[in-house]
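In response to the reviewer comment on reproducibility (Comment 2.3), we provide here a single inverse folding case reported in full, input and output, so that an independent group could reproduce the run without further information from us. The structure tokens appear first.
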């Protein structure tokens, strides 16, 4: 459908963005990047396209460029939970835990039922040595998304580190 829309209207930024997202999900990274960049070329103020391009750049192994895209997306639309969470995740991977915390908190403030953002928030809290708060976030993730293995694992690791092995074995 998106390809047909682009053939009919090559200047339709949303079609390029949406096709880029689908191509990214299919692992067609180069094609995805081309369409996402085209969406931004057509409509530079398209916050979702900047966020999508940031995700593609992460997959390509370019975190610095991804951060710039997420920041641009948030300058355009500050209350965008996906971009906040994506930026928080990249910053966490770069070891910038306090900065990651700020963005993950912003994501869950805007969208309280966002399990991936709560997970990233828990990771940031754990990295900052705030284990009780991290435990609370991981428990919330498991309430929102039961069986989410990464949350179970990190919750178990924290509890094992606190010598709560009985609780840790449950996760």
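Designed residues, in position order:
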């Amino acid at each position: 459908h998106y390809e047909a829309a682009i053939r009919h209207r090559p200047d339709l930024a949303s079609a390029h963005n949406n096709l880029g997202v689908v191509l990214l999900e299919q692992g067609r990274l180069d094609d995805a990047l081309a369409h996402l960049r085209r969406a931004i070329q057509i409509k530079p103020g398209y916050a979702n396209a900047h966020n999508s391009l940031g995700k593609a750049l992460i997959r390509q192994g370019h975190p610095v460029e991804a951060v710039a895209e997420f920041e641009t997306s948030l300058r355009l639309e500050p209350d965008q939970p996906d971009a906040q969470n994506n930026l928080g995740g990249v910053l966490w991977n770069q070891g910038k835990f306090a900065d990651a915390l700020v963005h993950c908190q912003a994501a869950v403030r805007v969208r309280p039922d966002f399990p991936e953002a709560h997970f990233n928030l828990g990771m940031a809290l754990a990295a900052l040595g705030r284990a009780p708060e991290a435990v609370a976030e991981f428990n919330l993730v498991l309430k929102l998304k039961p069986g989410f293995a990464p949350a179970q694992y990190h919750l178990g690791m924290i509890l094992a580190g606190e010598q709560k092995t009985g609780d840790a074995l449950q996760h």
